[in-house]
Amino acid sequence: MKFAVIGLGSFGLNVAKTLYEKKNEVLAIDIDKERVEEVKSFVSHAVCMNSADKESLEALGVQEMDVAIVSLGPAMEASILTVLYLQELGVKRIIAKALSEDHAKILEAVGATEVIYPEKDMAIRTALRLSNPNILEYLPLISGYSIQELAPPDNFIGKTLRELDLRNKYGIQVLAIKELIPEKITFIPSADFMIKDSDILVILGEEKQLAKLNSQAKP
Looking at the domain 2-116, which fold is it? Predict the structure, then answer.
């Protein structure tokens, strides 16, 4: 696939490098010459330019990209204009990094198909892990829903999914169970699956219901 990564701060730089390592074509763009020099050996093309310039974007061929990722740090006006121009040039998928909820609303209004909050998501992830040691991973989905990896608390161990009845009690779906001994993954496990202390549950649900489950589960 073809990706344009616009903004080469820490987030953009790592996205660009990782995409290129995965054998994708990556066009990296930043107004800072030093950042462009830093990344040029790790991407397909690296260009120093102002992305808030529609003619320059078009001349560069960003309209041919499958996905554009916009991560311009504190430059809110530049990120908004960049997303607008990408949308006008016909880029189908535009992922933009937002600094606030208001910034996110504007980015969506001008054409972003997906808005991300890396710092906010990491803060939530860290807070959840610190507040409940059973939460191993957290992935926010659409508003109000998320996926969590949960180490089973003591009162889960030795019980079947039917006995736990998470769907009826909390509206939570068990998507998969990672078994460490022996190592394998069971997708959509049956109701008779018995939880072991070495298992990890991958669960999906409303965040308020996940929080309720976490508060009631005994560590």
Answer: Rossmann fold (3.40.50)
